[in-house]
Amino acid sequence: MLQPRDTRDLAEAIADAALDGTRLAIRGGGSKDGIGSPSDALPLAMHAFAGVIDYDPAELVLTAGAATPLAEIEALVAGQGQMLAFAPFDHGPLFGRAAGSATLGGVIAAGVAGSQRLSQGGSRDHLLGFQAVSGRGEAFTAGAKVVKNVTGYDLPKLAAGSWGRLFAMTEVTLKVLPAPRAARTLAIAGLGFVEAQVAMAAAIGSTAEVAAAAYLPGGATSSTLFRLQGFAPSVAARSDTLSRVVAPFGTLDAVDDGCWDGLTSLAALPAGPSLWRINLPPSRAPVLIAAFPGIDWLADWAGGLLWLAYDGPADTLRAAAEAAGGHAMLVRASAAHEGVPMLHPQPSGVAALEARVRRAFDPAGVFETGRFG
């Protein structure tokens, strides 16, 4: 394992790897080690790049080392009545690990966002800038700390969801937002998924300003969830608005606001089968689910995100996701899907463009570990 002590050390290690053909696997807290195929790439430990560098609550901006624990950042901003609005979470528990190992850079590189992505956007919408070292062994700064991205790329957008295949981030600058003073979760019980999706769409399009919407299947015990946030009087008024909007579908009842934790822990899904994450247009979600009767699943983002426990043919699921206008990522593979690529195969034109972007930052393929397919 390589353990660079600073940016200069890191740049030299990457440059040396580019010269001798060594492949490097960027590693922060290891919370997502179980995602993707096994790789024999040399681990590049980023532990030295941890710690809060600058935090200005009045300006709603935070800069920290990429290896800073996510839990540390969330506790820091919560102490100032603020939050990471895209609600990132720790993947560790999905692989039987204790929570707490996820890092700030790791959740950005993986594009992790929780239920509030529906209203607040994803990690790329909150990433203002970063510092990194490319596969050429060159240190650079991008985003908020420079006037222009001289490469011609919107680099923060590329960084979020890049899975460490472009460069090694050492420092990130994020926008934070005030935390809501009050939150309330309301639910309609017993809806089928088709009705629930229409109800969620109506709620999202209304003036109720719904922060999150999800569906937990279960027949007569199913729950269609809506979360409202803000100042208490506003939440109360918007609760009344939401009740009127969804009245054709059923009556809203207040439930424990902690129920949203289940949409990240996925404790309701069995641990044995492979775990799949499908992004698709919300209106197409019921059609996809109907094509796979008998599986266990959950729906977030008003139906735009499906979590499936599924051990059937991977090609069948991915074809269904494509037909629905989406894509399927293999998050946790069982023996049934050993060797199946993690990322959904791209159309040839998109794949060629993606390869050109990767070569621009990593011409020697230092970060091409084979892990992601």
Describe the protein's architecture and organization.
- With 373 residues, the protein is of the alpha+beta class.
- The protein folds into 3 domains: 7-178, Uridine Diphospho-n-acetylenolpyruvylglucosamine Reductase, domain 3 (2-Layer Sandwich); 182-264, Alpha-Beta Plaits (2-Layer Sandwich), CATH 3.30.70; 266-337, 2-Layer Sandwich (Alpha-Beta Plaits).
- 26% of the residues lie in helices and 24% in strands.
- The chain has 11 helices and 17 strands.
- The protein has helices at 7-20, 70-78, 104-109, 117-120, 155-159, 193-204, 232-245, 262-265, 285-290, 314-323, 348-361; strands at 24-27, 42-45, 52-56, 61-65, 82-83, 127-134, 139-143, 167-175, 177-178, 182-189, 212-216, 223-230, 253-255, 275-279, 296-300, 305-309, 327-332.
- Strands 3-4-8-6-7 form a 5-stranded antiparallel beta sheet. It has a 4-stranded antiparallel beta sheet with strand order 11-12-10-13.
- It is globular, with a radius of gyration of 21 Å.
Which H/E pattern describes the elements?
HEEEEHEHHEEHEEEHEEHEHEHEEHEH
> What level of helicity do the residues show?
25-40%
Tally of structural domains: 3
| Number of helical segments with 4 or more residues | 11
Q: State the secondary-structure class.
A: alpha+beta
CATH architecture of the largest domain: 2-Layer Sandwich
Gross morphology is globular
CA gyration radius, whole angstroms? 21 Å
Q: CATH fold name of the largest domain, please?
A: Uridine Diphospho-n-acetylenolpyruvylglucosamine Reductase, domain 3
**Residue-averaged pLDDT, rounded?**
94
Q: In total, how many beta strands?
A: 17
Q: How would you write the strand order of the largest sheet? A: 3-4-8-6-7
Which percent band covers the strand fraction?
Answer: 15-25%
Distance between the termini: 23 Å
The biggest sheet amounts to: 5 strands, antiparallel
The parts where pLDDT drops under 50 for at least 5 residues are 145-151
What's the CATH C level of the largest domain? Alpha Beta
